[in-house]
Amino acid sequence: MSKKITADQTARYQQALAADPTAKVLERAVSHQGILATSADYASETDMTPVFSIDLDTGKVANQKQSGRCWMFAALNTMRHHLADLFNLSDFELSQNYTNFWDKFEKANYFYENVLATADQPTSSRKVAFLMATPQQDGGQWDMLCAIIQKYGIVPKSVMPETYNSSKSSELNSTLNLKLRKDAVTLRKLVADKASDADIAAAKDKMLGEVYRLLSFSLGQPVDKFDFEYRDDDKNYHIDKGLTPKSFFDKYVDWDLNDYVSIINAPTDDKPYNHTYTVEMLGNVVSGRQVKHLNVSMKDFKQLAIKQLQAGQSVWFGCDVGQSSERQKGIMDTKYYDKDALFNIDFSTTKAQRLDYGESMMTHAMVLTGVDLVDGQPTKWKVENSWGEKVGTKGYFVMSDAWMDEYCYQVVVNKQFLPDDLKHIQETEEPTVLAPWDPMGALA
Q1: Could you tell me which residues come within 8 angstroms of residue 431 by beta carbon, excluding any fewer than 6 positions away?
Q2: Which of 219, 243, 240, 244 shows the shortest CA–CA distance to 230?
Q3: What PROSITE patterns does the record tag this protein with (predicted)?
């Protein structure tokens, strides 16, 4: 039976505060300065000095501005690091707007297909409600960008630069989601009315044509052929004519994307280690690359990242960036804020509990570009963010190893660094399908 709060209870709480000689001091501090500033432990800044035993030179950071494309920026950054080394182009960027266009176009089709697949369920069903909550958004995962590149290639930023709507995406997202929800009404009605497959296909084709027009006006039309003209860091002039987005990727990046796989650390009871997982209704390209995660222990997770850094290659990773993070200074450290001491309350939970109870999930993707190893063990990590140069150390952050333990959920590594047993599991095991709302389906 439910119990209300009584006057006796509140009186006891008030008396307890009155008896605490520090209560009024803390009240003044917290109420005027805020919880974070009052609980900050600036000793953390000394520990997080940005010096690393392995430190890749990856040039200037990019800036996603007012958009949620961190996953895309981070992935393209790992590719441009490779390209810059090969072609002596330190400040070069790949077009995030080009991949953004095709991602949103493909997400629209992916949404329509999921609407049709669930059209026999009521709008009150959890799956339908999940679909309609966010028909599409800026976020994504590594495998989703691979699906886009494998189908459409990539281009230099100079060929398809940013627009108002790519850098400040809220207007485009709200308009596109308005259309997608309206189209869902139409598609569900067609199914309910037992329309023919041909009629449904025709309706969907018209919808996709309208989405293409909306995206073209907002982001510009993607190119299909272009010339790549540039000067390298030694001021030598180059021009490469008649490229396509796919031939550009093949020539200038030349990665087999199938070699790069998602490794996660999700220590929840429903996801035993050394097995693979996918997430229902998560993706963008229909019949494209599947999102597939290999779940491993944190020890294996970090060792794989270190091996790739030692080989001179940066590492895409996903985390919950808002936890114990000081944005302006660029510090991610579990010791930076001590709320337990400030309030005399135990806020501690395990990583598994945070995932199971909705306290944490992957919210942001960045790039590991260095690590400080002491006696062979990592103590802190160098992170390339995509928030411009005005935060952190010219856009670079420092992450404590303890922070990685608690709030990092995903890295992408080349399969060559996997031990044979994990490589075999990743390549051969059919993944367990998780519910659409599983935290491992969160979009960075």
Answers
A1: 275, 276, 277, 278, 290, 292, 293
A2: 240
A3: THIOL_PROTEASE_CYS, THIOL_PROTEASE_HIS
* pLDDT class of 28 with cuts at 50, 70, 90: very high
Query: Of the residues 295, 319, 364, 408, which is catalytic?
Result: 364
Kindly give the pairing relationship between strand 377-384 and strand 325-326: unpaired
Tally of residues, the chain: 444
Enter the pTM of the model.
Answer: 0.96
Catalytic pick among 70, 146, 319, 408: 70
Mean pLDDT, the chain, rounded, equals 97
Q: What is the dihedral of CA 211, 216, 222, 223, to 10 degrees?
A: 130
Write down the pLDDT at residue 317.
Answer: 98
* Cross-strand pairs, 319: 364, 408
- Enumerate residues 6+ apart whose C-beta is below 8 A from 413: 260, 261, 263, 304, 305, 307, 308, 315
What does the pLDDT look like over 29-75, one tens digit per residue?
A: 999 999 999 999 988 999 999 999 999 999 999 999 999 999 999 99
Residue of 177, 293, 385, 408 with catalytic role: 385
Catalytic annotation on 238? no
